[in-house]
Amino acid sequence: MQSFDVVIAGGAVMGSSVAYHLLTEPAFRGRVLVVEPDPTYRRSASALSAASIRQQFSTAVNIRISLYGIAFLRGAGEHLAVDGERPEIGLKEGGYLYVADPAGAAILAGNRALQKAEGADIALLDAAGLAQRFPWLRTDDLACGTFGRSGEGWFDGWGLLQALRRKARALGAEYRAGAVTEIERDGDRIASVTLADATRIPCGALVNCAGAGGAALAALAGIALPVEAKRRSVFSFACRERLDGVPLVVDTTGVWFRPEGDGFISGVSPQAGEDDPDWDTDDPATQEVDWPLFEERIWPALAGRVPAFEAVRPGRAWAGPYDMCRLDHNAVVGRAGGLANFYLCNGFSGHGLQQAPAVGRGLAELVVHGRFTSLDLSDLGYERVIAGRPLLERNVI
Ligand SMILES: Cc1cc2nc3c(=O)[nH]c(=O)nc-3n(C[C@H](O)[C@H](O)[C@H](O)COP(=O)(O)OP(=O)(O)OC[C@H]3O[C@@H](n4cnc5c(N)ncnc54)[C@H](O)[C@@H]3O)c2cc1C
Question: What distance in angstroms lies between residue 353's CA and the mean position of ligand 1's atoms?
């Protein structure tokens, strides 16, 4: 029977980032196994993401995570090169633009003050400034907007996942096709995992990077995780008129859009009280695109905010799972309460791709040193779940 120092359940962007960061930790000498049931990643959030990165969060820890994230993405070609071959992740620093009406202006300005204090390059523009900087934008109902002049944008999420995976393998991580279906505990420690094909693998530590399957995996170890998978749809569309310098815009309606290739992609999350259907990994019917959403919610908001979007040509669309943390829409990262060697990397609530570099590094530090040695991620720890103490993130899209 083969044993591993660290088993990582889930081999998409988080699992691969944890593996990569473990194997680049100078003090780590162990063997790493990444267990992933679907090496095509067809249903993994990492492959279905809008793959954008922003500094415009309302909690300090998320801003710090994204500041490291953008630095990592800028240098990805270098960090993740294998045999001199540099991966291309197509980073475009086009910025995010959050806009606010008079009712939302104070919140936006407050968030921006925190972002600035943390070192993010976010400008506050009044309505006249917005109209001048973004002439294609309707601004008559707006009070202000915040715009990331650098450090925000979008990239090839699939490319990042593949580059992290390839590099982790080159550094010695073993990837195995399979799902963790049982976890054996020995007192306050995880002793082994068992895969669907009944292979038992003793392990020194277990990291839960199972995305939409994260709560079910944690339950196998007796840990209750308030994370549920929610369906989110992304719609592409084309516009006849040429618009220059479009960032990722987050409208007052919650609808977002950004350039993608020659056109745009867009989406929206349900507002409080609206229907928010679950994504069931085993039920394809729950994974269908919510087609009426574009016609009923998104297109009216697009046309209301950008006159040129009154005439758009809808294109393809896809749906993917948000692993939504019910407590506060923030990730749960760190050791699972009461268990000495079980680590959680779950509940990214729609912003996990950009968080993969910092969270992967943090978890590697925790496994190797027993504490965070670079960026302190303890605000995201499981302790807040046990205490029922939310770390509220206001900017969830
Ligand atoms: C439509 C959409 C848009 C998004 N837009 C953005 C964005 O713009 N910016 C951003 O930062 N984030 C975005 N996200 C979120 C981001 O994609 C996720 O937070 C991130 O990809 C999570 O990575 P992960 O590795 O934790 O999960 P996943 O990519 O879902 O991977 C989890 C893996 O675990 C495997 N697994 C499940 N159960 C088990 C088990 N029992 N044993 C072993 N393996 C298992 C699965 O097969 C899967 O491959 C978006 C997500 C969606 C769906």
Answer: 8
The two beta strands, 263-267 and 256-260, are antiparallel
Does the Cβ of 59 fall within 6 Å of ligand 1? no
Q: Is the pLDDT of residue 275 over 60?
A: yes
pLDDT reported for residue 273: 82
Q: Does ligand 1 come within 6 angstroms of the Cβ of 353?
A: yes
For residues 63 and 118, give the distance between their C-alpha atoms in angstroms, rounded to a whole number: 7
Other beta carbons within 10 angstroms of residue 159's beta carbon come to 17
148, β-bridge pairs: 122
Is 393 a residue whose pLDDT tops 80? no
pLDDT band at 359 (very low <50, low <70, confident <90, very high): very high
Whether the CB-CB separation of 263 and 79 falls below 8 Å is answered with: no
Inter-residue contact 233 to 317 (CB < 8 Å): yes
Average pLDDT over residues 114-119: 97
| Protein residue whose Cα sits closest to atom 19 of ligand 1 | 352
pLDDT digits (tens, 9 = 90+) for 164-206: 999 999 999 999 999 999 999 999 999 999 999 999 999 999 9
Mutate to test the pocket of ligand 1, among 49, 343, 344 (most ligand atoms within 8 A of CB): 49
| Residue to probe by mutation, ligand 1, list 16, 44, 181, 318, most atoms within 8 Å of CB | 44
Cα–chain center distance at 25: 23
* Residue 1's pLDDT band (cuts 50, 70, 90): confident
Calculate the CA dihedral of residues 222, 9, 6, 176 and round it to 10 degrees. Answer: 140
